[in-house]
Amino acid sequence: MEIYLLILLIFMIIGSIIAIEAKSLLSSVISVGVVGFSLSIAFLMLGAPDIAITQVVVEVLILVILIRATITMDNTAIEGGGGTFPFVVSLVFFGLFLVFSFFAVQEIPKFGEPLMRVSERYLRTSAEETGATNVVTGILLDFRGYDTVGEATVLFTAIVGAFGILRRRGRKKKTEEDAEKVGILEDEDIKKDFEGF
Amino acid sequence: MICYFLALVLFVMGLYCLVAKKNIIKKIIGVTITEYSINLFLILIGYRRGGIAPITLRGMDPGEVAAKGVDPLPQALVLTSIVIGLGVLALMVAMCLRLYEKYKTFDMSEINRLRG
After folding, report:
1. Chain B hits for A113, Cβ within 8 Å
2. d(Cα B61, Cα A127) in Å, to the nearest integer?
3. Which residues, other chains included, contact B115 with Cβ-Cβ below 8 Å and sequence gap of 6+?
4. What are A112's strand-pairing partners?
5. Among A126, A166, A164, which residue's Cα sits nearest to residue A143?
């Protein structure tokens, strides 16, 4: 079980290396798809089927959005790397980060033996308190419902922002039709009106 | 233990892509990979050895889920985090398309030079 998980993780790391270093944008987007779908298999192996389903759906949407962003553009080839200075700096800092994280992961609860102080109660009483056989949905919609409301707010804000940026027309300019609708008179019309007097 | 470390390696690689690459789409890909690794790390912390999914199936003893189920709390929180990630990605791609429309390039240094 764990050996399969390790193989999957190494596969994901290889996929993300290809995604980062590929020369063409389309192939790097497709490599992100590799990482995301193997992530959903990993979720399935870790006992989280709800998240695996969500991850598959979201991954398909991410691929559609990213391919829309890349494929219609004229020059998607990448010229040149990022230069040596950012490379060296990030190598040093992220190497330090990895060294410290190696010691940090020794301190947190071991793999396979989670701390279950709050969740134990959720697992025990979810069926009788919420009536949901799936404990995850019980937490999502009942025990922590306010959290889900906040999440919906964040999602709404992000989508409204995207629509606002992508909207084609801004404020309309004043045209002749508009002038007629509102009833603004031209100069000649005014003269015609005054001739009657 | 080694699983945690590999998830953190994935995190660092996403962060490297975000910092060192010039292309905007590559930066967005870096954000996506970072997000994946954090979600995976949280789920890994909640895993119980030999655990089952926290769902009571038909004909299953109610105590069985409480005895063997994996931690459901990080699962519920990661579920919201994945969906938020999709919304944020759509926002980033929208900004990116507008930038392309104005400057006709995805290159970040080029856009910096052409400012104004």
Report:
1. 48-49
2. 12
3. none
4. B48
5. A126
Per-residue pLDDT of chain A (197 residues; tens, 9 = 90+): 788 899 999 999 999 999 998 888 888 999 999 999 999 999 999 888 999 999 999 999 999 999 888 876 666 566 655 578 878 888 899 899 999 999 998 888 888 788 888 888 888 888 888 888 888 888 888 888 898 899 999 999 999 998 888 887 765 565 666 655 565 566 666 666 666 55
- Give, rounded to a whole angstrom, the gap between the first and last alpha carbons of chain A: 98
- Residue contact B71–A78, C-beta within 8 A: no
Q: In terms of residue numbers, what domain contains B21?
A: 2-113
Is there a contact between A23 and B47 (Cβ–Cβ < 8 Å)? Answer: no
Q: How many domains does chain B have?
A: 1
Tokens of B105: 């390039």
**A80 CB-side CA count, 13 A:** 9
Q: Which helix (H) or strand (E) is B4 found in, with range?
A: helix B2-20
d(CA A85, CA A4): 38
Tell me the ipTM for this assembly.
0.89
Residues of B in contact with A105 (CB under 8 A): 1, 4-5, 8
**How far is the CA of A56 from the CAs of A26, A51, A91, A120, in angstroms?**
20, 9, 32, 28
Phi, psi of A153 (to 5 degrees): -65, -45
Element (DSSP H or E) covering residue A188: helix A187-195
End-to-end Cα distance, chain B: 50
Q: How far is A171 from chain B (nearest CA, A)?
A: 17
Which residues of B fall within a CB distance of 8 Å from A32? 29, 32-33
Q: With contacts defined as CB-CB under 8 Å, which chain A residues touch B4?
A: 105, 108, 111
CATH number, position B6: 1.10.287.3510
Q: Looking at the complex, does the CB of residue B101 fall below 8 Å from at least one CB of chain A?
A: no
